[in-house]
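Fold description:
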Amino acid sequence: MTRRTTGGGSALTMTAADADFCLDLIRELVAIESPTSHPAGVQHVLEATAEIFAGTRARVSLTPTDERYAGLLEIRLDPDRDEPGVLVLSHADTVHPVGAIQTTLKMRREGDRLYGPGVYDMKGGLVLAVAAARRILDQGRRTRLPVTLLVTPDEEVGSPVSRARIEELARANRYALVTEPARDGGKIVTARKGVGRFTLEATGAPSHAGSYHEKGASAVREIARQIAAIEDFTDYARGITVNVGIVSGGTAVNVIPEKATAEIDLRVCDAAAGAEMEARFRAIAPFDPRVRLAIEGGMNRPAFARDGAIDALFERARAIASEIGFDLVSAGLVGGGSDGNFTVTQGTPTLDGLGVDGDGAHTNHEYMLISSIAPRSLLLQGLMERLD
């Protein structure tokens, strides 16, 4: 891919060539399949992203994590400036399995829509940030604060190896911008629910299902009864939802099952509800006293609560959007978590959902709107340049 250099100027503008560069780069990165569990693919995306900054003044570092995951990519646009600045967060991992691009979700353009695995969540958003940063560098534009881009390899599984660095950089910076996809026609995110993950394991007593049925204590039956009880933890009035998403157990159809597990997702609106729900999970007791239960997990992402500082940051963004030519709207409280949950709890005003518009995240109809590239990349550029 040809990397271009464009001229200077103070206005927020984007040429047709700039938009083509973004679209080409999105296609290039989507073509690299990168589910979190495929670190070689994620690393390839990170390396391709790093290469975009070759020959610029930016300082680029790609740091290994551990063998389960790809590395952490950090790009500092002004490496000689060390005061608190603007942190821009993106992730390179997706959820679609390797091979999806050839089968269930082929990359293709249909009018304004570009389909492909991870195109909306969130390679489109990653490219918006990268392109905005590259325009700043190419045009010799001066940002009011130093800008750091962090691209992570593990957001889709809760950021186990990147969380510490995200929180460290959040504390060291004045603002955080997250390029997760826009919601519901281009709305950005100013509040998110907290996310909890739990695994419930039941251990019963195996026996022959025909000859000695009465001697067995079924772990599967216990888990089934627990699922009904756990699902009833959901309280829509309080914004609490519980979902048992994965269930497994048993060894053979003619054996009373000794082992069974359930993997559970929890969403809450605030820290108090998170603590309350963790206590409820810890207090789960077996229906069948012959079955032992073990519960692991807890709150993975704290709630992202909107406050006055986020209100002020949103108004700054809205003014820039108005200058570009569109009305920026907040989606309000959303259920999905992101790395923005971590930055907010470090006291860093955060705007999220600054990526591309589209729909179908994590599904076989995932797409982004090509028309959202220019305005939303310009919005990111304006925030990077003008926040102070």
In short: The CA atoms of residues 17 and 354 lie 22 Å apart. The longest helix spans residues 119-138.
